[in-house]
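User: Can you recover a sequence for this backbone? Please restate the input before giving your answer.

Assistant: Of course. Working from this structure:
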């Protein structure tokens, strides 16, 4: 298991997780989460305020986290409704 021990990297992970959960609540897809996370990670690379090894750990953890559907809760609390818009 890759874990983060840098407090700044942990805060970025938490911030990214919160943002992705909000995107899920707005019925965004996994690919849209990936785009958002890629942009966030790209900005972190450009800021250059995390050590390279910490940034690599964060990237790997985020990649695995987004691909794992159990990481998210559906907008109605039902994991079965993830990534799908409900028909009215």
């Amino acid at each position: 298991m890759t874990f983060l021990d840098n407090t700044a990297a942990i805060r970025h992970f938490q911030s990214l997780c919160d943002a992705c959960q909000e995107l899920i609540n707005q019925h965004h897809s996994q690919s849209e989460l990936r785009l958002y996370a890629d942009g966030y990670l790209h900005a972190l690379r450009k800021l250059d305020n995390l050590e390279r090894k910490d940034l690599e750990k964060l990237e790997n953890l985020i990649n695995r986290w987004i691909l794992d559907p159990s990481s998210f809760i559906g907008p109605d609390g039902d994991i079965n409704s993830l990534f799908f818009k409900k028909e009215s």
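That completes the design. The CA atoms of residues 16 and 78 lie 21 Å apart.
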